[in-house]
Amino acid sequence: MAAPGAGRRLMCLLAAALTLSGCGIAPTGVQDEGRPPVISYSPTWVTVYLLRDGRLEPVRFPVGSDSAKSIIDTLFRAGKVPPRPELSTALNSFRHYDTETTRYSAASQRNEPEDNLGYRLNVLITGEGTITRQGLAQITCTIRQNKQESIWSVEVTRLFPGPPQSFKEHTCFEYRDLAADGVRLPP
């Protein structure tokens, strides 16, 4: 004779098995719903200054970011493989090491609270020798072209080999004599 409640247990197990084996949704074949979602990448374009016959020539390049570091990296890369054969660079014997941004302020005015007016970008490079005026112009004008509002001046410092050497602070305006014919340089 069966134990009392055994039938009830059997019915519960059978109901549970039926519940787990089917969810009430009929199976279908594979359906194509189109292309999977993809993040679209649209690069930022920056202007870098290369040299044509020793004069500054603007060239547009795509970059992943418009940060000062990315812009300077692009300038150094562009000079190694210029987009046109007549273009060159004065930066071949140097490498971009890093960039540092500091506040540029007018603390020299008396009786005025210190106003933060903009930024100074220090571009740190490595390499043998002294950077030429054309090389300084390439770096300075490239930054000023792309960061006109925030970067007021550019200082280039060679870290090594040897002791660090600062090439002072510059604006692009002082290199206007190096502009190629028909090229208007940023301030």
Explain what you see.
It comes from Streptosporangium album. Residues 1-26 form the signal peptide. This is GerMN domain-containing protein. Keywords: Signal. This protein has 187 residues and is an alpha+beta fold. The protein has one domain (44-178). It is built from 3 helices and 6 strands. Helix 2 (68-80) crosses helix 3. The chain is elongated and about 105 Å long.
Question: What are the key terms here?
Answer:
single chain; 187 residues; alpha+beta; four-stranded mixed β-sheet; two-stranded antiparallel sheet; 6 strands; 23% helix; 30% strand; elongated; GerMN domain-containing protein; signal
Tally of strands: 6
Q: How confident is the prediction overall: mean pLDDT?
A: 85
Low-confidence stretches: 108-113
Tell me about the largest β-sheet.
Answer: 4 strands, mixed
3D shape: elongated
Structural class: alpha+beta
- Number of helix segments? 3
Strand portion = 25-35%
N→C terminal distance: 103 Å
User: Secondary-structure element order, as H and E?
Assistant: HEEHEEHEE
Count of domains: 1
Over all CA atoms, what is the radius of gyration?
32 Å
Strand order of the largest sheet: 3-4-5-6
Helix content: 10-25%
Secondary-structure topology with pairs:
Blueprint: H1 6-21, E1 44-52, E2 55-63, H2 68-80, E3 94-105, E4 116-127, H3 133-146, E5 151-158, E6 165-170
Parallel strand pairs: 4-5
Antiparallel strand pairs: 1-2, 3-4, 5-6
Helix pairs in contact: 2-3
